[in-house]
Amino acid sequence: MIEDKILFIVNPKACGGRSLKIWEKKIYPLLTKSNDLKFDYVFTEKPFDGFRLAMKGIEKGYRKLVSVGGDGTLNEIVNAILIQNFVEPTEIAVGSIGTGRGNDWRKTIGIPEDYNESVNILKNEKYILQDVGKVRYIQNKKEKERFFINIAGMGFDAEVTYKANRKKERLATSLSYSINLVKTLFSYEPTIVNIIADGHIVYNNKALTLNIGICRYSGGGMMFTPNAIYNDGLFNLTVVDDISILKILANLRGLYNGSFIKNPSVKTFRAKTIDVYSQEKLYLEVDGESLGHSPFHFEILPQTLKVIVG
């Protein structure tokens, strides 16, 4: 029966086009050797094909969808699962085999990097329920909505991500992010930001960057929200004041181990809903995908996504 089959949604262009070779030479052979897995697969061809193919697969009856690509491909599949109205979202399980440059989400959830191990966990049928974030934002003068499962970044972080995405065919994510982080330090102009968390004003100042996390890692291994727990029903919010370039460079190592949040210029909060207003336009990225601008409204949906884990 089709509901017993896994539908792999493969982004062949992930990792600068190397994802197709990884699928053909490493992942697909492992799948065909296994007698325990029944599966079909489809390829994306253009942006948001992951959403379209996932929606079509759910309509056909697939109840296990596995992303083969980066965090962006996975985000599209997740949005299809949560927007579709054929079944309850928790009746659909999502998994990921990372072939893209940005595979930060799996680090928190515990999905292995090794392809053989990744295929093996698909046989075990072990699941967790994780929280999902929903954000409203403005794009082309219209209010839009997007779900996310890892981290949303605003301001400086969104600018760095946008520049890294433009160059992702040439550089690995962690390297690309780090290079563009340093370059953007000399051009980005912080703006005054007003943040309301669970109905209370928690911040009203000039901010360099903001991150709202369900999970811990982004930017190729950086930890902007190191204390985030994927199923506790709360966002972790990290705000960095408008600090000097020298302070940022001195704390780069702290971004990779999470210790930078101890800096007096860094503020952290936990909340179920977060509203962000800004004096100038503040841009947004979620799960590594560049979106629109402020104002933003964030809402957490506790334990809404069924995830295949090891």
Question: How is this structure best described in words?
Answer:
α2 (49-60) crosses α3 (71-83) and α6 (156-166) packs across α7. The protein has 310 residues and is α+β, with helices and mostly antiparallel strands. It starts with 5 loop residues before the first strand and ends with a strand. β13 (283-286) and β14 (289-309) form a beta hairpin. The protein folds into two domains: 2-124, Rossmann fold; 133-301, Tumour Suppressor Smad4 (Sandwich). It has a six-stranded antiparallel barrel. It is 30% helix and 36% strand. It has helices at 18-33, 49-60, 71-83, 105-109, 115-124, 156-166, 173-185, 245-250, 252-257, and strands at residues 6-10, 39-43, 64-69, 93-98, 126-139, 142-148, 151-155, 191-197, 200-213, 235-241, 266-271, 273-278, 283-286, 289-309. It contains nine helices and 14 strands. One of its GO terms (molecular function) is kinase activity. One of its GO terms (biological process) is phospholipid biosynthetic process. Its cofactor is Mg(2+).
